[in-house]
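Q: what does this look like with BIS(adenosine)-5'-pentaphosphate bound?
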Amino acid sequence: MIIVLFGKPGAGKGTQAPLLAAALGVPTLATGDELRAAIRNGTPLGLEAKSYMDRGDLVPDSVILGIIKQALSEPRNAAGVLLDGVVRTVPQAEGLAAVTDELGTKVDAVLCFDIDDDEIVRRLADRTVCETCQTPYTGRAPGTACDKDGGTLVRRKDDEPDAIRNRLDVYQRQTAPVLQWYREQGTRVFVIDAVGSVQDVTARALGALAS
Ligand code: AP5
């Protein structure tokens, strides 16, 4: 089972991913988390990705397709995976389809978390994330400890106002067309209202997948 989690920056993909993964019994892959780990570790991948990410631009498709190909060939993802923010351009969707074709699988559904820009700006202005496990929090000060692993909570560079504006613009120009591409392929696309309690949003997403 391969499920694509889709939506604007701050829509709640990273919040929903572990909850949906636990309910569905599959692991997650989040390219944003992979790239931030590469930056922290100072790898060549991290060095290449950093300037794009700090500005809120997309990292080149070739880099993302390398991550997708590697991840989907790992045994831990053989029974399925939840892709969190992994597909953000039509070439990435096409590249993922080529990899899944080779592996004899396919994307089963796309869950698009729907939310307006004002709510996004409110959420991201108040977000901190755990430096180590990347869990997002609202209303928790930088420097305090993560509930899950005790890691330090930090502000993301791309949560500054200019970078947020750029990310929303990039989403409209480069990422939103991916939904239509999936519809044209006949893939099930569910638009989920992402406003409400975290539990309600999870229930909506699981309800859609079960329908
Ligand atoms: P990435 O880390 O994936 O960032 P993003 O897509 O911009 O998404 P976010 O992590 O900002 O938001 P989210 O939807 O996960 O929301 P969250 O759950 O945190 O990517 C970062 C960068 O990496 C990209 O800009 C790009 O440069 C690069 N990159 C990554 N993948 C790429 C790809 N495939 N191609 C090219 N480049 C790529 O929630 C946000 C806040 O809201 C949190 O504070 C949370 O606590 C809160 N919240 C969540 N749900 C609710 C709720 N129901 N009610 C109230 N508050 C809520």
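Residues 7, 9-15, 31-32, 35, 52-53, 56-59, 64, 85-86, 88, 92, 123, 127, 136-138, 158, 167, 196, 198, 201 surround BIS(adenosine)-5'-pentaphosphate (CB under 6 Å). Strands lie at 2-7, 28-30, 81-84, 107-114, 127-130, 136-138, 153-154, 188-193.
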